[in-house]
């Protein structure tokens, strides 16, 4: 029995030794991933019905076969069929094939294109087939012409993604509003489009954010664009250089000259815009609080609507605050006996658009109630007062127990609610305007309420100034004085010298402001070649927001007292001289006002003068003008082959190098021990 136990022990120990050896050897050896090599080749088309570029096709179902299992990603975004289909086609992926069933009847003698972009990928690794377009013809000839270009937002040259671009052989302006596109495409993330399968001939080209899927311009709220030029597709033989890189992706292996067919025009630029609404109506009427009524109209007007109170006397009942052209109006009710009413009823007479599209007198009857009734407000105020009283008693007892006389004194101070005042920041540029903004209209502003002081030899000295109420934003008051660089000023407002419309008084205000030295600013001049008096230059910050604006004079615009930093330059051809960009109007064949950018950033330093080179606004194509740093719509990320086999090889090579290094280190340690 003992011998058998010894044998069992020997076998157990031997097995354990083998396991440990295998583990140790496994730790030292390079591991080979299971499953064999990765698939790093894109899917290939191995057949189709009908055949690619087949003619005289009658069947409405298209099947495309591949050499491996595939997926179709973002079909609604990637796939576009031309001519456009009124009924949405049925698209199905079945293992190694894609099936497209067209619902619309096939048009005779027409080339059909099914553009998949890069949406077809293999099932396992996601390797893209590439920009794949399947075509066939219902006639005896396949049309192969193409045109391409870009669609940009006319206001800021931002690329527009996903907008349709279409062609008409009917050159009449009415085609865009009465017929659907004959050929169609869709833009990618850089605003680029390609329209394929075009017959030779003459065409009009349009872009359209087709909200109702009619493939035509049917409502003014649709973003659209058109080219004034007639498009004549053509082709020419051309050459391009293709670069083959070495494996290090840094050095060039070969540069090949490749012949290809170039389809023209390939540089079309469409500037898209949304037309100004032309239907006037009362878009919004709110009474969020008892004392304030807000009215908003669909489009600007030139006069104030006529208001007639139905359960109150409107005469001298409110103060009006409005935008320049009365599209937004705020009524600040003055009398508590009026605005304490939970319901205010009044009529509003203004010019509205009738069923014939004409502006005629129209009267709306409004009945507005606030979000909270007066009874609820009183109830909430009583509860708050009760809560505050209980808290006061609780805090007072705690302070008395602790013998905190200072805390008790502070607690006893009356709690006063003041009229809120906002003002300009403490650090100002010389061209800034100091502004006081009140939360509600002011009924009383004492002539002596505001004082402006200047620090001279450590003494505050009164200086003359002017205060002016904004003509539109009636709650804003601007203070003008002879501000000087490197000087410190103080704005003083006595307490209780300003009274708000609803009885609140101001707290005392003491605000110190300082103007930076002249050598902390930058000066910047923009020079423009072939200038027009209508050119308006805008300086933009690193977010693309406007910081300064200036009208061109004698071919240039000077900007003084700029805070150092990074700026971008935009130009608007302000044709109607209203100091802003204006949209277009298709019915009048009026394009939106032109916009241009200098495609660079200007890094302005303090105490530094910079002048641009003479800027030719037409020298750079529009789609390449807007600086990348302030372009919000980025180009789609180009899909590439996964190349995991190469990644695995590099990883294994790295592991081998590390193991060789460890082996060498162990060898050196053994030799050192022998020497010792």
Give a verbal description of the structure:
The chain is of the alpha+beta class. It contains 7 helices and 44 strands. The protein folds into 5 domains: 45-234, Sandwich (Immunoglobulin-like); 282-371, Immunoglobulin-like, CATH 2.60.40; 379-412; 421-516, Immunoglobulin-like, CATH 2.60.40.3710; 520-620, Immunoglobulins (Immunoglobulin-like, Sandwich), CATH 2.60.40. Helices cover 16% and strands 37% of the residues. Strands 27-36-34-30-31 form a 5-stranded mixed β-sheet, with no helix packed on it. Strands 38, 39, 41, 42 and 43 form a 5-stranded antiparallel β-sheet that branches. The two termini are 51 Å apart.
- With strands numbered from the N-terminus, the spatial order across the biggest sheet is 27-36-34-30-31
Task: Estimate the helix proportion, in percent.
Answer: 10-25%
Number of helices: 7
Q: Report Rg.
A: 38 Å
Name the CATH architecture of the largest domain.
Answer: Sandwich
């Amino acid at each position: 029995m003992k011998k058998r136990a010894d044998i069992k022990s020997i076998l157990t120990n031997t097995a354990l030794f083998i396991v440990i050896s295998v583990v140790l050897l496994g730790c030292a050896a390079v591991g080979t991933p299971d499953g064999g090599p990765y698939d790093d080749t894109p899917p290939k088309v191995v057949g189709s019905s009908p055949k690619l570029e087949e003619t005289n096709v009658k069947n409405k179902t298209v099947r495309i076969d591949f050499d491996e299992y595939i997926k179709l990603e973002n079909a609604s975004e990637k796939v576009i069929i031309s001519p456009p289909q009124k009924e949405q086609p049925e698209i199905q992926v079945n293992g190694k094939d894609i099936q497209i069933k067209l619902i619309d009847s096939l048009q005779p003698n027409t080339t059909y294109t099914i553009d998949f972009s890069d949406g077809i990928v293999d099932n396992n690794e996601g390797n893209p087939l590439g920009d794949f377009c399947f075509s066939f013809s219902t006639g005896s000839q396949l049309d192969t012409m193409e045109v391409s270009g870009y669609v940009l937002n006319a206001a800021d040259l931002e690329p527009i993604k996903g907008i349709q671009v279409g062609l008409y052989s009917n050159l009449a302006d009415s085609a865009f509003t009465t017929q659907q596109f004959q050929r169609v495409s869709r833009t990618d993330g850089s605003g680029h489009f390609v329209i394929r399968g075009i017959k030779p001939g003459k065409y009009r080209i349009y872009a359209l954010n087709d909200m109702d899927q009619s493939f035509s311009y049917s409502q003014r709220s649709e973003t659209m664009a058109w080219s004034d030029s007639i498009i004549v597709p053509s082709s020419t033989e051309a050459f391009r250089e293709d670069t083959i890189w070495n494996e290090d992706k840094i050095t060039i292996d070969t540069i090949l000259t490749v012949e290809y067919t170039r389809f023209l025009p390939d540089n079309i630029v469409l500037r898209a815009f949304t037309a100004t609404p032309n239907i006037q109506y009362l878009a919004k009427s709110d009474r969020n609080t008892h004392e304030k009524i807000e009215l908003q109209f669909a489009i600007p007007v030139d006069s104030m609507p006529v208001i007639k109170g139905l359960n109150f006397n409107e005469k001298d009942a409110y103060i009006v605050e409005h935008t320049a052209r009365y599209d937004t109006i705020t009524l600040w009710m003055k009398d508590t006996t009026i605005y304490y009413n939970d319901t205010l009823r009044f009529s509003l007479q203004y010019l509205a658009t009738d069923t014939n599209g004409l502006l005629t007198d129209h009267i709306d009857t409004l009945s507005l109630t606030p979000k909270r009734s007066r009874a609820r407000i009183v109830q909430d105020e009583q509860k708050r007062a009760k809560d505050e009283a209980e808290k006061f008693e609780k805090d007072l007892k705690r302070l008395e127990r602790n013998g905190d006389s200072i805390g008790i004194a502070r607690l006893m101070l009356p709690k006063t609610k003041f009229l809120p005042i906002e003002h300009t920041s403490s650090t100002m540029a010389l061209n800034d305007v100091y502004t006081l903004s009140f939360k509600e209209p002011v009924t009383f502003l004492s002539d002596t309420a505001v004082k402006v002081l200047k620090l001279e030899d450590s003494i505050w000295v009164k200086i003359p100034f002017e205060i002016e109420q904004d003509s539109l934003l009636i709650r804003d008051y601007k203070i003008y004085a002879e501000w000087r660089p490197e000087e410190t000023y103080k704005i003083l407002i006595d307490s209780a010298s300003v009274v708000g419309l609803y009885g609140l008084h101001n707290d005392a205000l003491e605000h110190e402001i300082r103007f930076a030295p002249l050598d902390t600013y930058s000066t910047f001049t923009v020079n423009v070649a072939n200038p027009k008096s209508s050119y308006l230059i805008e300086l933009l910050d690193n977010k693309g927001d406007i910081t300064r604006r200036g009208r061109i004079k004698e071919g240039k615009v000077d900007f003084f007292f700029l805070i150092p930093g990074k700026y971008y330059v935009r130009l608007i051809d302000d044709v109607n001289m209203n100091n802003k960009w204006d949209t277009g109007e298709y019915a009048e064949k009026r394009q939106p006002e032109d916009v241009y950018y200098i495609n660079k950033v200007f890094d302005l330093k303090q105490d530094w003068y910079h002048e641009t080179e003479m800027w030719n606004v037409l020298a750079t194509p529009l789609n390449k003008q807007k600086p990348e740093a302030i372009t919000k719509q980025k180009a789609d990320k180009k899909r590439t082959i996964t190349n995991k086999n190469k990644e695995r090889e590099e990883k294994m090579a790295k592991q081998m190098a590390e193991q060789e290094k460890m082996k060498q280190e162990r060898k050196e340690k053994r030799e050192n021990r022998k020497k010792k």
